[in-house]
Design goal:
- The complex is a heterodimer of chains A (323) and B (341).
- Chain A has 323 residues and is an alpha+beta fold.
- Chain A contains nine helices and ten strands.
- In chain A, strands 6, 7, 8 and 9 form a four-stranded antiparallel sheet that branches. In chain A, strands 3-2-5 form a three-stranded antiparallel sheet, with helices on one face.
- The longest helix of chain A has 71 residues.
- The longest helix of chain B is centred in the C-terminal third of the chain and has 70 residues.
- Chain B is rod-shaped.
- Chain B is 51% helix and 21% strand.
- With 341 residues, chain B is an alpha+beta fold.
- Chain B contains nine helices and twelve strands.
- Classes of the chains: A alpha+beta (323), B alpha+beta (341).
- At the A-B interface, helix 1, strand 1, strand 6, helix 4 and helix 5 of A face helix 1, strand 9, helix 4, helix 5 and helix 7 of B.
Amino acid sequence: MNNIVKVGLGVFVLVAFLVLSGTLYTLEEGQQAVILQFGRPVGQPVTDAGLHFKLPFIQDVRRFEKRLLIWDGDPNQIPTKGREFIWVDTTARWRIADAKKFLESVATEDGAQSRLNDIIDSVVRDQVSASELVELVRSASWEVPPGEVLEEVPAEMQEELKKKIARGREEITRTILAEARKIIPQYGIELVDVRIKRLNYVDSVQEKVYARMVSERKRIAAQFRSEGEGRSAEILGTMEKALRQIRSNAYRQVQEIQGKGDAEATRVYGEAYGGDPEFYAFSRTLEAYKEGQNKNSVMILTTDSDYYRYLKKAGADPVRPTP
Amino acid sequence: MEQRYDPEKILEEMRSHFQGFRGWRIAAGILGAFLLVLLWSTWFTVQPEETVIIQRFGAVHRTVGPGLHFKLPDGIERVRTVPTARVLKEEFGFQTTAVAIAGQRTQYADSKAYKDVSLMLTGDLNVIDVQWIVQYRIEDPIRYLFWVRDTRQTIRDISESVMRRVVGNRLGSDVLTVGRVAVSTEVKEEMQKILTEYEAGVRLVTVELQDVTPPDPVKPAFNEVNEARQDRERTINQAQEQANREIPKARGEATRTISEAEGYTLERVNRATGEATRFRAILDEYQRAPEVTRRRLYLEAIGAILPEAKALYIVDSEQKALVPWLPVESGQLPQAGGSKP
């Protein structure tokens, strides 16, 4: 009897436990659940975390993510409008907005990823092929900054840079998002954001770009060198001018000063010698004789010269005026 | 709690009931151990840099800070630990493989895979190699864990996308030189804006550019430009140096010649004045006795000149043909014809 009670108790506990465990379920934070009744979704998806009830045995719980999820596409080689092939790597953020629709249309996250692959890849391909490379790189509002950074950009590249572009990277990204969003709601997915993560030249183009960059640099280097030489020549020219100016100016002043001195001396001499020009001529001539180079010269004097007059005869002559 | 009541275990217990008293003791022992394990899971400690979130039946119930805390046993409440006070770091374009310890050099791995991250296009459609880091803190652990899945990857994706956009709006030479700070500030602001939109619960501490270089194949050409710039400065400086050396020297020389000219003038005037004064003085005396003075002066002069002469010929005033007997061409003058006084 006692044993029968015990067995009965045990069976009861077992059944109670099974019913209870089929009735109660927990939902993790960041998850949502859809209740399936015989495989058919019933009621609204459960989005609050915690302990919840359901009918045992006939209802089943399917849990889905409520968090923001990552979609990361494979990098694609896409030609731009200008026929350049580039690698484009996009990434997107999405979440399961309507768990019921999600369950019906794609069932699992893997299914969703593959749908997103199809949709986003094709939209990105369309948009990239319809855009110039510049538009993918720059913003439409971007303008060349003024100032010295342009020093290192070759002239025709500057022209290229100043060209206005119709669409910028932001607008292309926005268009991609808008286009993709048009198709996606039917899967119960909310596409939050699509971004171009990486953008790069394909290898063969990259080589050419590098070659172009190298030649550009070389040109700039040559320009710098010639600028230096130009400036140097300019400085040396200015220096030469200054030197000539200084020297000729000095020469002019020297001439003026010396001229003034000469004039003054001439005036002084004139005033003094004007007193008796004949005597000046006489005394100056004698001075000149004395100063003159008489060494090694041969002098011939006649006996009627004043100096040797008395050599011939001692008698007094009537004195003649000396020449 | 329900998973602890394993049906098998209960059957086991029930079978043991029939085996009597010994069975009861074993059951009590198992139950005791079970309770002990449950009790053991009711307390936990939190490290200073951590925040712990306690989930009751999966739902967030409360968060606690550092210290000793208690909770309901496993199965009802569970803990998730998040290092909220720690600054976390993401590296882009490189990876620190060994952090420097006490003076040793930090080692970095550098490979092709990182180049995919670091190579990007600039506004002038050139390629540039940018390496950077992002430092962040988990500001809101609940959002960090439960609003975004794989927040770390999200930060990486956003950072790459934003960095490319910002660099795409600049010239390569700008990013390489003066634009570095502006780039990192702009990236940080834009990233934070997007992360806030995503409600990722992350606060950026800093975004910093590390090595920003031209791609390897182009580096020598860039260095050449730098060298050329140096050359330019050097050439200009050399010319300037020459100018600086020569112009002051020329100025000095000019001043010297002018001073010399002034000296010449002074000398000339002084000499003239002196000579004029002397002449006037002589003239005064001369006018008192002109004839005598004249003769005296003449004789004095001849007297001074004659001793200097090499030869002297005194010829009679009647003699006309003088030249024929002078052996002028020989240069050797006969002494007989003349005498030196």
